[in-house]
Amino acid sequence: MKQIALTILALSVAFTSGCKTEQKDDVYYMIAANVKLPYWQTAANGFNKAAAQYKVTAKVVGPSSYDPLGELDALQQAVRAKPAGILISVADVSILENEINEAARAGIPVITMDSDAVVSRRLYFIGTNNLDAGRLGGNRLLEKLGSKGNVVFFTIPGQPNLEERLRGFKEVLSIQPGIKIVDIVDVKGEATTAFDKAQHYLTMTGPQKIDAFVCLEAVSGKPVADAIKRANLRDRELIAWDADPATLDAIKDGTIDATIAQKPYTMGYFGLKLLYEVFHAPPPQLNKDFRSDFYSPYPVFIDTGTTLVDRSNVDLYLSATAVNR
Known about the structure:
alpha/beta; six-stranded parallel beta sheet
């Protein structure tokens, strides 16, 4: 009888340990090129929330300032760790595509978020329809400028999602030949560059006067708003991107006209859930182009949505941000 009890106990411990090990062995990575930004901290919150619900391990990694090569290093380390899945925002396709393909060859599911690598072996993309988001911002700019004006954009050239946003703006603005794009500033992910360039353009007058500034990424919104405040100018339009607290505060005080708010929490949260599904019910082959597979079990793109935030609805976003700070 004693031997039977010991056997049952041993089996019980083995079963419990086995279940626990299975969960602990499920490690998922979220990788970005600038993890210190509020935007990515919000995405990480969603990623970690889903990990807690599924009782798996989440790791959020990447450089603390905009650095595609640093992101490549983080991706290479993640691939070597052989995780259950990788969720990655692609800062530079030319730098990251090969390693994404290496992950697929190694049997690691990869889903892109926020910024895509279309021709890579990632399974699919989850995030914003950036072309439509650019059109949304472009229509707002037309409302504010009318038929003419000079515009300066702040972006990071070569980043796929930002290029799509810019293309959306250009499509809309092209219907008004009187609206001129004076410059497309490469901020290189640095707030000081955005501030200095904005200060420079704010000194221009007459036909060279810059009537509107558009920030296509989160870093430049606040510094451009700060430059406008310092110059004490009330006749310039500023459209920003994302809904970090500083941007929302600048909408409230009227310095920023509007921002295009994405849903990074949803990207992170839903991204881990989708990776979990793939890991526990994998396709026969990961290293293939699912875009051209008529019987693909995966979509090409999952749109998490965008909203234009201005003074009419900013209080709703400020309230939500206060709760989650």
